[in-house]
Amino acid sequence: MSGQTILSLHDVTVQFGGLKACDSVTVDVQRGELFALIGPNGAGKTTLVNAITGVYSPNEGSRVSYTDPDGTTHDLIGRKPHQIVRTGLARTFQNLGLFPGLSVLDNLMLGRYIHQKVGVMSGGLFTRGAVKEEVEAREAVERVLDLLEIPEYRWDAVGELPYGLQKRIELGRVLAMEPDLLLLDEPMAGMTTEEKQDVVRFIFEIRLALGVTVLLIEHDMAVVMSIADRVMALNFGQQIALGTPAEVQRNHDVIEAYLGAEG
Length: 263
Hints:
Elements: E1 5-16, E2 19-30, E3 34-38, H1 45-52, E4 63-67, E5 73-75, H2 81-87, E6 89-91, H3 104-110, H4 120-125, H5 128-147, H6 163-175, E7 181-185, H7 193-210, E8 213-217, H8 221-227, E9 230-235, E10 238-243, H9 245-250, H10 252-258
Parallel strand pairs: 3-8, 3-9, 6-7, 7-8
Antiparallel strand pairs: 1-2, 1-4, 4-5, 9-10
Helix pairs in contact: 3-6
């Protein structure tokens, strides 16, 4: 970790009617770390990520900011999701957002849209700029295919592949955006133990090869405690613990809320 803050949340509150799905969450994520967010269903984990990425609008007084590699700080509140993506954040969703009828290659190429500069006409005429952009996009996608060990599936229709591979392709589509901060919302949900082990390995390789910071939502406590640098626990939208995996694992509130301990 660099000791520099990449994502800063201050008093982030998201309210639906009388329900506060997130209640005054305050935390700084450091550049280079793997920061895990844990909690039971309904704890507010995905709501918090939605507030970061512009899907939900936090209450007045909330502050969410991202600092890019050049040191420029971007206030994210009030921006649309596509605008936030262009600053350097990218995310996966719990549910697959792939196009099952398209090939793996085409699905990954869709992740390159934020880097597209030439217009529709230039692309249709295949001008010099369009050709250059297409070559750069294909090179970037090929690197992702190699990184995730799926080059042999490049021409296969996504919908014909096993679920575990589809989850890997979903991760690849986001990596094709070349994010600086990667938010993973339960990337191992529904996977076998072997598939989870593969995802853990890929997360480590992504951090090493691409230098991205990772914010991870995950229900598998064994996975979280083994790979995270720091962990924040939520319960009913409120932060109840923050620290190293060992510290959070020993926290009485976490044990009571998430591990079902008595007393």
